[in-house]
């Protein structure tokens, strides 16, 4: 190996191998010695772990390079090492990357054997228990190819890059690129640890709501059917420009507000003072009063005899039926972003895959379990991933949720929980869980970022604890709820008139010395006791 390294390394590079741990020297770690300084921490036949000492931007960061054995029994040592090292590096940025010779899920395979045996769970279980997250990537998904074609083609996702929480916190924009295969049967991996970048303005923006308009397909077909001379790229850009103008017209509203804004903008841009200001012509364009209908006053509608905006509004508006569930969504303890997502879910208006009109057929499966079709009913309650989260949280909160379809369960909840502390607690739990499940689904859909159920359970628990911990005493949180969620008591600072401490450390009152003093918990705060 010592004779081979100088032939393959660039000038000025250093390298390590694990030939001491395996006779083939299965791993080579090379680096530019003029730019980086590394310290070797540990190695074996399946991994080499090192620490970056220089430059200071990466100082302290640890990287483990992996080449797992082909036999699943021999990879057990690798899984044990990852779990042990994840605990040692829980406060240190740590990346682990390489050829693990294992897949995370059945969808990471194409061709060949399709069975999923018990030993296939070893790898995803190890990653989940180690609190590692897959670094977002682009490029080739199936990183290994057997070199065959046609029916003999076999592809696998065997190459992975994971990072722990300190790594992803230090470099939130970390990204991996899988390059096309060249001489090897594996795709090369490049991880970029860059600082946050300013978001650039996109060159083209498409609003999804355009596709929901009834005339969308007609507009596109009409523009695309026009004959435009020139090369293909010119014809494409010209048609896109025409299509953009037609779609933008859907947002132009020439009403009173827009006319007023345009008028005052012209005044501000001008240099002469405005003269002859007459708003009547603008109001006449937007308001057409009915002269045949007699005017009426509304202040007598108030029970107190006082005119209020509420009474006038109730008289002139067209009141529709109230939807149930308002107390579960917009209660006093609600978290705004959670409540909004829960409200959309209660209307089945979240953009799940079954509601996307531009998805190819057949539709891809649920992003959480990869086995069933994604819809509101499956995503939040019937998915294997969601069920694991719900079972733990319902046990923690000691509440009941029926195993029935989503809309039936929502109707049941609006009837069962309509007032009291239990309603607010159920709404808080339901909103946080639906929000986090939807957030995890979107991270997988857009960033290929996969979280574990255990991590989500911990996040939801912390969200609820943080919210309950900020409640005021008049919100009447029972002591049982406080102890169940481990909410700490508040420390109150009190002034005791006439109380002072003597030079000997004794507390003295107005008339006599006090031997002992302290605080005892009572009603959510600490009260003083004096002896």
Task: Kindly describe this structure.
The chain is α+β, with helices and mostly antiparallel strands and 531 residues long. It has three domains: 5-192, 4-Layer Sandwich (Deoxyribonuclease I, Chain A); 326-484, no CATH class; 500-530, no CATH class. Helices cover 34% and strands 15% of the residues. It is built from 17 helices and 19 strands. The chain has helices spanning 5-8, 76-88, 122-129, 165-170, 216-224, 232-248, 256-269, 280-286, 309-316, 326-329, 336-346, 376-382, 384-397, 406-416, 421-447, 453-469, 479-484, and strands spanning 13-17, 28-32, 37-43, 47-54, 62-67, 94-99, 109-110, 133-134, 137-139, 144-145, 155-156, 159-163, 175-178, 189-192, 500-501, 507-508, 513-514, 517-522, 525-530. The strands form six sheets. It has a six-stranded mixed sheet with strand order 3-4-5-6-12-8. The chain has a three-stranded antiparallel sheet with strand order 7-11-10, with no helix packed on it. Strand 3 (37-43) and strand 4 form a beta hairpin. The longest helix is centred in the C-terminal third of the chain and has 27 residues, at 421-447. The chain is globular. InterPro entries: Endo/exonu/phosph_ase_sf (IPR036691), RVT-Znf (IPR026960).
Architecture blueprint of SSEs:
Layout: H1 5-8, E1 13-17, E2 28-32, E3 37-43, E4 47-54, E5 62-67, H2 76-88, E6 94-99, E7 109-110, H3 122-129, E8 133-134, E9 137-139, E10 144-145, E11 155-156, E12 159-163, H4 165-170, E13 175-178, E14 189-192, H5 216-224, H6 232-248, H7 256-269, H8 280-286, H9 309-316, H10 326-329, H11 336-346, H12 376-382, H13 384-397, H14 406-416, H15 421-447, H16 453-469, H17 479-484, E15 500-501, E16 507-508, E17 513-514, E18 517-522, E19 525-530
Parallel strand pairs: 5-6, 9-13
Antiparallel strand pairs: 1-2, 3-4, 4-5, 6-12, 7-11, 8-12, 10-11, 13-14, 15-16, 16-17, 18-19
Helix pairs in contact: 2-3, 5-6, 11-15, 12-13, 13-15, 13-16, 15-16
């Amino acid at each position: 190996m010592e004779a081979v390294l100088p032939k393959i390394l660039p000038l000025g590079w250093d390298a390590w191998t694990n030939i001491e741990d395996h006779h083939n020297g299965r791993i080579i770690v090379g680096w530019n010695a003029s730019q980086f300084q590394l310290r070797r921490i540990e190695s074996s036949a399946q991994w080499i772990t090192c620490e970056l000492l220089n430059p200071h931007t990466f100082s302290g960061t640890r990287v483990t390079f992996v080449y797992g054995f082909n036999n699943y029994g021999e990879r057990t040592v690798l899984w044990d090492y990852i779990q042990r090292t994840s605990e040692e590096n829980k406060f240190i940025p740590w990346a682990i990357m390489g050829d693990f010779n294992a897949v995370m899920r059945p969808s990471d395979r194409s061709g060949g054997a399709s069975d999923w045996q018990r030993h296939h769970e070893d790898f995803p279980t190890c990653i989940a228990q180690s609190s590692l997250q897959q670094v977002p990537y682009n490029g080739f998904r199936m990183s290994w190819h057997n070199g065959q074609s046609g029916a003999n083609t076999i592809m696998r996702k065997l190459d992975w890059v994971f990072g722990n929480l300190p790594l992803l916190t230090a470099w939130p924009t970390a990204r991996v690129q899988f390059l096309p295969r060249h001489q090897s049967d594996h795709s090369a991996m490049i991880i970029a640890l860059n600082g946050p970048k300013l978001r650039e303005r996109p060159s083209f923006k498409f609003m999804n709501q355009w596709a929901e308009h009834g005339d969308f397909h007609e507009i596109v077909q009409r523009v695309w059917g026009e004959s435009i001379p020139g090369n293909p790229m010119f014809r494409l850009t010209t048609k896109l420009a025409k299509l953009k103008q037609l779609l933008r017209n859907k947002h132009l509203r020439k009403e009173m507000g827009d006319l007023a804004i345009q008028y005052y903008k012209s005044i501000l841009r001008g240099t002469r003072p405005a003269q002859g200001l007459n708003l009547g012509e603008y109001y006449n364009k937007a308001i057409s009063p009915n002269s045949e209908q007699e005017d009426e006053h509304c202040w007598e509608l108030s029970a107190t005899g006082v005119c209020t905006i509420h009474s006038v509004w109730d008289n002139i508006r067209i009141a529709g039926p109230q939807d149930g569930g308002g107390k579960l969504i917009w209660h006093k303890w609600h978290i705004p972003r959670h409540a909004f997502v829960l409200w959309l879910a209660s209307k089945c208006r979240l953009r799940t895959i079954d509601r996307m009109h531009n998805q190819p057929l057949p539709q891809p499966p649920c992003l959480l379990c990869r086995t069933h079709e994604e819809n509101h009913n499956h995503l939040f309650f019937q998915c294997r991933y969601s069920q694991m989260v719900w079972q733990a949280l319902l046990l923690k909160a000691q509440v009941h949720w029926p195993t029935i379809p989503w809309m039936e369960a929502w109707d049941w909840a609006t009837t069962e929980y309509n007032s009291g502390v239990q309603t607010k607690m159920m709404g808080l739990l339901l909103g946080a869980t639906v929000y986090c499940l939807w957030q995890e689904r979107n991270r997988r859909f857009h960033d290929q970022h996969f979280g574990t159920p255990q991590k989500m359970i911990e996040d939801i628990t912390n969200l609820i604890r943080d919210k309950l911990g900020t409640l005021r005493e008049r919100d009447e949180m029972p002591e049982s709820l406080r102890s169940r969620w481990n909410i700490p008591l508040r420390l109150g600072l009190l002034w005791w008139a006439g109380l002072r401490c003597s030079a000997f450390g004794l507390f003295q009152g107005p008339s006599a010395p006090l031997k002992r003093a302290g605080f005892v918990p009572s009603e959510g705060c600490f009260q003083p006791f004096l002896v």
